[in-house]
Amino acid sequence: MPEKFMKPYDPAATESRIYAAWEESGLFNPDECVKQGITPPDAPSYSIVLPPPNVTGRLHMGHALMLAVEDIFIRYKRMQGFRTLWVPGTDHAAIATQSVVEKQIKKDENKNRHDLGREELLKRIGTFAAESHDMIVSQLKTMGASLDWSREAFTLDETRTHAVRKIFKDMYDAGLIYRGHRIVNWDPKGQTTISDDEIVYQEEKTTFYYLKYGPFTIGTARPETKFGDKYVVMHPADARYEEWKDGQKIELEWINGPIEATIVKDESIDMEFGTGVMTITPWHSMVDFDVAERHGLDKEQIIDERGKLLSIAGEFAGMKITEARARIIEKLRKKGLLVSEESYTHNIATAERTSGIIEPQIKLQWFVEVNKKISGRNKTLKELMLEPVRSRAIKIVPEHFEKTYFHWIENLRDWCISRQIWYGHRIPVWYRGEEISVGIEPKEAGWTQDEDTLDTWFSSGLWTFSTLGWPEQTDDLKRYHPTDLLETGYDILFFWIARMILMTEFALNTIPFKTVYLHGLVRDAQGRKMSKSLGNNLDPLDIAAKFGADAARMALVVGNTPGTDMRMSEDKIKGYKHFANKLWNIARFVLTNASEEKNGSKTWPSGPERDHFSPREHELLTELDTLAKEMTDDIENHRVYLAAEKIYHYVWHTLADKIIEESKPLLAGTDSVKKESRQTLLLRLLDQSLRLLHPFMPFVTEEIWQSMPTKDAPFLMVARWPKPAKGLLQ
RNA sequence: GCGCUCCUAGCUCAGUUGGUUAGAGCGUUCGCCUCACACGCGAAAGGUCACAAGUUCGAAUCUUGUGGAGCGCACCA
User: What is the mean pLDDT of chain A?
Assistant: First the structure.
């Protein structure tokens, strides 16, 4: 009996030692498993790429959940003898990382990015990203993630940069990437464009004004944009405005004097809303922009990139829109143009990272066109995104997210991929006068590179194949792609999953993964989101130190169905710490009672032939066999929450409460045949239980198994998963 | 407005294709330091499965409707 079993189980003292031993063995690397004869060279492969955590700081419980689920699948498949690869990596997360560092510099030194300059800022971000990276790696290891560190990738490293440039050029050559003046979401605070998905809508109470516009009354919540409005739009079928004809001119008195306006009839107008008449500001509204495009109308900029009014505003020029609003209303009132006002609640668009209020602007940007047929394939990118999910070549778990996915794709507009920030992949386009070079930097002098960087999702969209060495036709790419499972939170279904499908279908003409497993949010005990401001975050490192990573993993997994948010509390995790200790005590009992001390050395029962097991013992073996079969089935069908619960229940309430209790008289008895048979049985049941529990609680099971006489591999991690088809009696 | 999800024990949630007395964890009550474990053991209380109608031999599970909660997308002139 090893000394360690005499004390309660101590995860803190065990886990880091075990991880180091695994890492030392090299067996996280599937090639090493083949080399050491553990995996047959022709074994089928199983692969997952780790959704790369952002290098913006530390991991949170959501990451811990992701790691637990992925590691369960990886360990299960590895134990089944698959050539199993789990690729680690981190994401530079462009805008998120830059804004964290910028905020810090603003706070510490009261400087902005222009004070520092591009080079210096990038240096600072690089340092910060490296520190975050190291912290993240240590957290990944603490959670027990059996990642192949020899293949670690970063979205901004050399190989990935090569992939980004290659695909940018290929998409440009295919006519899918274009540069154009289009209306985009402009974040005046972050001084950059952002994509539709980076917008967070916030409810705002404001005033809705009715203004006299010639013979009409128009409604608006944004009088500060109205200076240049010279088109008045109504629905062609609106009987109230029948007398007005499309294209008709009218003269009217407006904010800064008399103007001429044109009547426009457009079906996009909601007759029920307000008065059914509106004026349009194409430069600062998506909808208005569309109307203007349809009718070929003029577009004028009213607000600058800092959120100040331009000279068109006359006396209000130079004012911030917020302060200008009240004054404009005052002027309208004096001029008798204010008809009425009412209170109004609407959603305003804000930037996710900076919480700046989005001001739509027309800007020259780079876009990916999603509705254009790709030459040679006769399909649009949108269709390429829809098809594999429709045909179930890609299966989404839980299934109902397919509908959400379709809904989103159908509403998808061209993807703006250029950002006016400095951290990230610089757009691989060079200009010299009217000339342009895409993808390849010209060697001659006189060329300058585009100042902008790419949306961070452009590079993470390549993740399943860029991590495997694409565009080189590597062995890894051939062997491990498409990957088997992509596991992530449902909140990035659109951001990331859709874009990976887009990129992979375009670049490789195949799917990036076969199954998408979406986990829910980890909330606090009261059901609130965990956040810095609430101070209700649970740090995986603290939790692991206090209760053990095994306990945290179980608490995150048991009963947690995919796609559903869960509540997490220290009490819950504590319960599974107790479970680890329970298992420890079971092991102590079995190891003590299943061996005989002779001359100071321990002997194990040689094991009876199967015929010596009593009918009851056959029954107990069959019971565990059934459990193994059910668990295998559950995991194959992505029900890890059920498999985890079953093994927990078996170990505590069957193995400990029933089998050990009923074994005590036999072990203390004088019938040596019965005793030895029972000793063999207990060792076998414990051994199999450890195997079944290992994917869920890798540390404590490994630690115990190392002391088992049934040990038949260097590590439990690479021992064989019970094969219920053959039966445990074999 | 379009779409999705949820409503099961005091709390948090399971319940896979409809099938015997509806489960778990935590909590509560009672009794136990029984030589594996007090990070434990034994026992107990606790549910008209939101509501209504329907399909069925049979519904927590399928259909429709009502009510409540949450989420996503779009729009907001």
Answer: 91
